[in-house]
């Protein structure tokens, strides 16, 4: 799946399970 995944909609609606989502948008190389 190359970095993608599926998540059940019910999981997203559950306040106990889906309260802290974050993503990495950009990574910079060190000089």
UniProtKB/TrEMBL annotation:
This is Peptidase. It comes from Microcystis aeruginosa 11-30S32.
């Amino acid at each position: 799946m190359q970095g993608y995944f599926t998540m059940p909609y019910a999981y997203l609606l559950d306040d106990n399970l889906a309260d802290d989502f974050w993503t990495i948008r950009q990574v910079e190389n060190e000089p």
